[in-house]
């Protein structure tokens, strides 16, 4: 089918046999769907706009362990958006000052604070120092407000052994949520999602790096496909963009991202970019996080 308002672009609908894919493996799924085909000389550009994953194949993935309802029960917050923020400046603060920002933000009314994508374990603030100071701020703010509070502790590291080590430490000091970056890769994301499920921890995914292949309109992958893959992988939260703020995003397309994460059944909705009807089987909902340069003056636009 021709792409509207173009003369040299077309939609191609391709079906694959389920037997061609290993069960429960995003790495194998993506190796086939977005493997060598994107480098073929026969096509000048190629973009994966949407996917319909069959019910039988979806059931081989774990999906989010917590989901939206259980998270609200844990926080005892209903009927209102959950409000969070990222610690800024994201680089350069000492552990003590970082923890102070966490405390002041949570005491001021936020439900969560979070590390940014490139806060890992730098010379100015090692990860243990950050975790301890964040937990001190969380505990003080919870005591002062009587509410459940948290901070997304980024456990992204160079190796999975180190990721598990940091995640175990975050759990041992009392954190209820950890965070990873999309750049870790699909196998790493599925692995830490399994760990989070087994250890009763919420898992937040920062979509760092997605725009390298999602932003170009004629080549790459639409982010709605990443949303589907990440819901399958088992993350509880994912940055899903926002119409206002500093990051690029079309209002209807972003609504499509949110629908892919929150609905139990998707219907065809071309304005939202949803090309296929699809049931999510028994996979829980994934919490979309509106993110990217939002400030108080934009809240009325966001809601």
From TrEMBL:
Binds 1 Mg(2+) ion per subunit. The keyword Lyase applies. Its EC number is 4.1.1.39. GO terms for molecular function: magnesium ion binding; monooxygenase activity; ribulose-bisphosphate carboxylase activity. Its main location: plastid. SUPFAM superfamilies: RuBisCo, C-terminal domain, RuBisCO, large subunit, small (N-terminal) domain. Its cofactor is Mg(2+). Residues 7-57 form the Ribulose bisphosphate carboxylase large subunit ferrodoxin-like N-terminal domain. GO terms for cellular component: chloroplast. GO terms for biological process: reductive pentose-phosphate cycle. Keywords: Calvin cycle, Carbon dioxide fixation, Chloroplast, Lyase, Magnesium, Metal-binding, Monooxygenase, Oxidoreductase, Photorespiration, Photosynthesis, Plastid. Coiled coil: none annotated. It catalyses: D-ribulose 1,5-bisphosphate + O2 = 2-phosphoglycolate + (2R)-3-phosphoglycerate + 2 H(+); 2 (2R)-3-phosphoglycerate + 2 H(+) = D-ribulose 1,5-bisphosphate + CO2 + H2O. Residues 67-302 form the Ribulose bisphosphate carboxylase large subunit C-terminal domain. It is found in: Plastid, Chloroplast. Belongs to the RuBisCO large chain family. Heterohexadecamer of 8 large chains and 8 small chains. This is Ribulose bisphosphate carboxylase large chain. It comes from Aneumastus rostratus. The gene is rbcL.
């Amino acid at each position: 089918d021709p792409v509207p308002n173009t003369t040299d672009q077309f939609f191609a609908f391709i079906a694959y046999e389920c037997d061609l894919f290993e069960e429960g493996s995003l790495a194998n799924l993506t190796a086939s769907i977005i493997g060598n085909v994107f480098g073929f000389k026969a096509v000048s550009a190629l973009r994966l706009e949407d996917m319909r994953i069959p019910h039988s194949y979806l059931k081989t993935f774990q999906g989010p362990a917590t989901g939206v309802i259980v998270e609200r029960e844990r926080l005892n917050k209903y009927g209102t958006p959950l409000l969070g923020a990222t610690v800024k400046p994201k680089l350069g603060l000492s552990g003590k000052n970082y923890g102070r920002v966490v405390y002041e933000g949570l005491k001021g009314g936020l439900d969560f604070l979070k590390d940014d994508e490139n806060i890992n374990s730098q010379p100015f603030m090692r990860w243990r120092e950050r975790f301890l100071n964040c937990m001190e701020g969380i505990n003080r703010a919870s005591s002062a407000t009587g509410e459940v509070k948290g901070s997304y502790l980024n456990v992204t590291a160079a190796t999975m052994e180190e990721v598990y080590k940091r995640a175990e430490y975050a759990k041992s000091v009392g954190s209820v949520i950890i965070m990873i970056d999309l750049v870790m890769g699909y196998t790493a994301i599925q692995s830490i999602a399994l760990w989070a499920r087994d250890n009763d921890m919420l898992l937040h995914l920062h979509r760092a790096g997605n725009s390298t292949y999602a932003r170009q309109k004629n080549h790459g992958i639409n982010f709605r496909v990443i949303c589907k893959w990440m819901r399958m992988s088992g993350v509880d939260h994912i940055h899903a963009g926002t119409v206002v703020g500093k990051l690029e995003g079309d209002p209807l397309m972003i609504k499509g991202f949110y629908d892919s994460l929150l609905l139990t059944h998707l219907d065809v909705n071309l304005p939202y970019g949803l090309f296929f009807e699809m049931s999510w089987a028994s996979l829980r909902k994934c919490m979309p996080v509106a993110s990217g340069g939002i400030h108080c003056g934009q809240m009325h636009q966001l809601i």
